[in-house]
Structure formats: C-alpha cells, structure tokens
Amino acid sequence: MEKPQTLSSDLTFASKVFIPLCYYAVVASFAFVLIQAALAHDTIEPKLWVYLLFSLAMGWLVTKVLGSLKRVRMDEGGLYVSNYLKETVVPFANIRSVEPSSIGDRWPRITVTFHTHTEFGERIVFLAKHRWTGWASLWRNPAESIARELRTAVVRATGKDPTAAA
C-alpha cells in the first residue's frame, strides 16, 4: 500500500490554529490596554464594550471558519480526514458530492459531502493544495483540479459520479 497523497494545503494547520491564536492575542492585548486606561480614569466608555463585543463576534467567526478546516489525504482505500487530533478513513462509496469553491483567489476550498454521518459530520471543508504545473498554475484555482482528481477516484472505486449538485 502506498503512502496517502495529501490533497489539503500545507497551510491548513497554520490557518486552523495560528491565525485564530494570533487574532485573539492581538485583541486581548488591545482590550487589556483599553481596560487599563479606562480604569485609570475611573470610567468605562460604551465604545469599549462595542469593541469587545465586535472583537468577540469576529473571533467566533474566524474560529468557526478556519477552525473547521480539515487535513485530507487520499489513497486507493478512501479519504483520510483529520482535524490534527484524530483521523478517520471515509470510504469513497460514502462521498455524495465534491464541490470546489474559492474565497477570492487565495483561499481555494473544497467541500466534500457524505451520504452518511461521519466522525466529522456530513460534510467537511479543506483548503486545496497548490501544485506547480507550470506558470499557468499561478493563475489557476487548484480546487478545480483536486476536486476533479477526487471525483475520478470516487468513480474508479464506486462507478458513480459524485456530481456537485447532490
């Protein structure tokens, strides 16, 4: 059995862990300074509460979007899905659809929907790995080619095409 091929970006761990941690560190530092200044003047401005609530809401959004990213690898046995704490193997027969998408040009995402509930839910999202295939690959969305590769593996294993419109 050969080593599973990585489909997700090498930046997944940094996006999932370090970006939210850095966000919270900056917000907490700024909030600490604001609270210290407010306590020195014996008054807490309403702007401080707005800042704190907005920062918490944005932190929740950052954590929800980036924290849900998965590390994905593939071999002939199926899809290896990991959140860096645990890993599970999902057989190709359980894949309902593979949908490439992109947030701008720099966040090529792939959403994989399953027929049944898995350890990570009924769908996963991962950042597609950039592959150098020549200068044109700088302008191409890597999610398209990886989604096509994953669909081909599903067709080879099951004989069914996991169309994006499931």
* Number of domain modules: 2
Q: What class do helices, strands and sheet pairing give? A: alpha+beta
Query: Which stretches of 5+ consecutive residues score pLDDT under 50?
Result: none
How many H/I helical runs? 3
Rough outline: elongated
Annotated CATH topology of the largest domain: PH-domain like
Give a verbal description of the structure.
By secondary structure, the protein is an alpha+beta fold. It has two domains: 10-67; 71-158, FACT complex subunit Spt16p/Cdc68p (PH-domain like, Roll), CATH 2.30.29. It contains three helices and seven strands, in the order βααββββββα. The strands form two sheets. It has a four-stranded antiparallel β-sheet, with no helix packed on it. A three-stranded antiparallel β-sheet has the order 5-6-7, covered by helices on one side. Helix 1 runs antiparallel to helix 2.
Gist?
The chain is an alpha+beta fold and 166 residues long. The protein is 41% helix and 27% strand. It has two domains: 10-67; 71-158, FACT complex subunit Spt16p/Cdc68p (PH-domain like, Roll).
Defining traits:
7 strands; 166 residues; alpha+beta; 3 helices; single chain; 2 domains; four-stranded antiparallel beta sheet
Question: Topology, pairings included?
Answer:
Elements: E1 5-6, H1 12-40, H2 46-67, E2 71-75, E3 78-82, E4 87-90, E5 95-103, E6 107-118, E7 121-127, H3 142-158
Antiparallel strand pairs: 1-2, 2-3, 3-4, 5-6, 6-7
Helix pairs in contact: 1-2
